[in-house]
C-alpha cells in the first residue's frame, strides 16, 4: 500500500477486460472503475485507486489492443479525489506527492500511442473529469447526472491536469466558467448536452445502450470511418478573458478565496507553458492550498451538504410517513405558483390551487403552464412530460377541492390572523389525516394551530426563493406537531429533492433570523450616520455571495421590515426597527443599481452623526451573528451548530470557504470573545487541534 494511502480508503479498482468489437482485427481493452458499491457511493481516487488504474493501464498496453477505453460502474464514472484523505496528509511533500501521482498515472493515457477513449457513462467530477480529459477521445451519456470541476468551491484547484487541458480543449472563456465561475455559483453542474456543446465530449449518446454505441463509435474512429474535428482555440483573447475574470473576482470576493486566484494563475500558465511545466505548477498550487484554513472549512461544508443534509438530525422514523397522492395549495400568487410547479414535477400527483377569485386562479395556473412551455422550448423537458404536468395542475375558487388532498400548504399573506382563518376554514373540509403545512417565513406555527381541533397535523414547511433553485427546506415542529405529520413532511421534502433541516418553532426560525440580525446590524450603522456605500462594502473581505444591500433588495425591503418587526416583538433588545428601512420600503425604489448605491434612496435617509468605519461595521455584524447563534443553540432551535451552517449554506448561499458561519467565527476568535466558547471542536473545520 502507498505511504499516502488513508487507512479508511475505499479503493476504486480498475478492472480490465478484453472486448471484441466488430470491424476490428484485435480486441479493445476496457477498464471499468468500480469501488464495489452501488451508485450511492461513487467511485473516487485515493492512492490505492490510482495504483490500481496504473496497473490496469500497464496490462492494457502490454496486450497491444486496438484501443484502450475507461468507463465507470453503472451511473458513475468517477467523482474525483478521495478528499477524506486530505486532512491526513502530514506535510507539504506528501501533498506534492499525491498531485504528482495522479499526474503521472493520467498522463499515460494522454501520451499513449494506442488510441485512448473515455466512455463517460455517468457522474464525472473533479479528478474523474480530469481523467477523461487525458484520453484522446470522449463519449458522454445523455443521462450523466453531474459534470463539473468543483474544486474551487472547496478551496482547492483542479490538481490533476484540468487547468491545463480544459482551456486548450474548449477555449479560455468556457474553461474559466467551468473551473471558476460555476463552483462559485453554488457549485453549478454542467448538463451533458451543455458539456457536449462546449466540446468537452466528442459525441453525446443515449444511456440505454451507451456502452455498445461507445464501442462502435470508438471502432469507427480507429478504422478511420469517424473523423473527430475540434475547433481551433482562440488564443488572442486569452489575456483579456482572464483580466476580466480577475476584475470580477476582485469585485465579488475581494481576495477572500485564494483557490480562485490560484486557478486564474494556472489558466494563464496554460496558454504558453508546456504540459509538464503546467502540471508542475498545479502540484505546487495544490500543496499550498491543502494546508489552508479555507480548505478545512470547505471540506467541513462539503461534508454537511453531502452527508448531514441526507440524514436530518431529529427527523422521526421515515416509516411513519403517510403517502401523498394529492396536494392542495392555498393561494395562486407567485410563491404558490412556484410551489405548484415544484410539487407536480417532483411528486407527479394532482396539484390544485385556490384563491379569492377566478382571475387570480387563472393567473397562477397560467404561470405554471408558461414555465412548462419554457422548459420544453429550452430542451429541458420533453413534450410527453409537459403534457402530463399540464393535466396535473389545476385551480379553483372553491376550497372543497381540497377534500381528498393528503397534503395542503398555504402561501397566503404573512399575517397570523389571515393564516389562522385559512386553517380554521380548511379543517372543516380536509380529511382527518391530511397534513396542513405553512410556508410562513417568520410566524409561529404553534400560534397558527392553537385554535384548531387537530393542531398536531400542522407543520412549518419554509421554502426559500426562488423555490426551484434554493435547496433548503426548514421543517418547523410546532408544540403539538406529531411524529406522523413530521415524518410525512420530511418524506415530501425528500421527494421534492430538498435538503430538510428540523427547526424548533422559534421566531423566523434559522436563516431569516440570522439574516435579519446581520442586516439589522448593518442598517443600524447607517442609521448612526455611516455612509451607505461604506456599510455596504464592510463585509467584502468575507467574500459573501452578495453585499448586504443587494441581499436586502433581493429579499425585498418591505418583507425585511415585516420580518424585522416580528423579531423586534420577540427580542426587542437585539432586533431594532429601522425607520430608514421603512422609508426605503415605502419609496418602492431599488436600493442598488448595477451594484452601486442608489443616490435617490440615500437622500431619503435620516441619519445620526456617529458614523462607523467599515471594520467596525464588519465586527459588529460578526459579533451579532456569534451572539445570536449561541442563543439559538441554547434555545434548541436546531440540534447542533452544524445545522446552523447547513441552513446558511443552502438557504442563504453562505460560501463553502467560510464553512458556513460558525467555523469562521471560531477561526477569528469571535465566538469565544462574544459567546464565551467555540461552536465547533478544535480541528473540526480548521487546522488547529
TrEMBL record:
Reaction catalysis annotation: a (3S)-3-hydroxyacyl-CoA + NAD(+) = a 3-oxoacyl-CoA + NADH + H(+)
Pathway(s) served: Lipid metabolism; fatty acid beta-oxidation
Domain 3-hydroxyacyl-CoA dehydrogenase C-terminal span(s) in chain numbering: 509-588
Top-level lineage group: Bacteria
Pfam families found in the cross-reference section: 3HCDH, 3HCDH_N, ECH_1
Family according to the record: In the central section; belongs to the 3-hydroxyacyl-CoA dehydrogenase family.
Keywords assigned: Fatty acid metabolism, Lipid degradation, Lipid metabolism, Lyase, Multifunctional enzyme, NAD, Oxidoreductase
Gene3D superfamilies: 1.10.1040.50, 2-enoyl-CoA Hydratase, Chain A, domain 1 (3.90.226.10), NAD(P)-binding Rossmann-like Domain (3.40.50.720)
Entries under CDD domains matching the protein: crotonase-like
Listed name of the protein: 3-hydroxyacyl-CoA dehydrogenase
Family matches, as SUPFAM superfamilies: 6-phosphogluconate dehydrogenase C-terminal domain-like, ClpP/crotonase, NAD(P)-binding Rossmann-fold domains
Segments forming domain 3-hydroxyacyl-CoA dehydrogenase NAD binding: 326-505
